[in-house]
What does this fold into?
Amino acid sequence: MRARDLSDLLLLAALWGASFLFMRVAVPQFGPVPLMGLRTGIGAAVLLPFLFSGGRAGELIEHAPRIAVVGLINSALPFVLFAYATLHLSAGFAAVLNATAPFWTAIVALAWFGERLGPWRVLGLLVGFAGVLVLVWGRLSFAAGGAGLPIVAALTATLSYGLAANYTRRYMQPVGALASAAGSQLAAFLVLLPFMVSGWPPSRPDAAAWSCALLLGILSTGLAYVLFFRLISRVGPSRAITVTFLIPVFGIFWGALFLGEQVGGRMLVGAATILAGTALTIGLIGPGRRP
It folds into this structure.
């Protein structure tokens, strides 16, 4: 991987890791749905000009139903669930839970397509979910003030990502990556728009919350997708997906740096175990490692 590609990978991980910081700051003032409406709307506004300038806007109309499904299950639903989770969970904790998406992708592939899971992928799933247990042990309380429901919301969000990954693989092959990204953000925005308007906070969010909302949409959504597709085109999807391992690192780092979040031994052990399981599950390590 060339130096430019490595810098793109690190920048992408930093931007996606920062999304949990931005949500942690802005969600309490905007609410989950209004903030994610802003995120998807701004993200679409950043991405659509790239699509139009490339003369591929016709793909949005041609594949509108499929793009709308991806917008729902890969953006609108998981974004809102993670936004709700960050009302109660630290940015670093939520970023670590985000790394479980490859586990759900493998499980959905097994249940939906009957895709065979080799022994090393099964081991990866077991190791990864053991890491989740380490991470949430003692916090999975559904009593008032407990973190049980936010944790379930975050894991449901990653399950939705797993569904979206498999849907994309099966039904989105004719759709260009940029059309899929721009169109799905637009579709998610349109889905969230009525709820965003009806749920708009009665008190005006402050400058910090607005700054985080804008950064979330411009940097962690619009620019991040551009970087991700550029990486895929240059180094291939198998290398680009290694960003999964860096997002929790940056999520923990940004939370500790700007919000003073405590990073305990349980979080570090849980994160390391989840990432080891992820590496096995997607074939980055083990005898069956993909080329």
In short: The chain has one domain: 3-281. The chain has a mean pLDDT of 92. Residues 3-281 form one domain. Residues 14 and 250 are 6 Å apart (CA to CA).
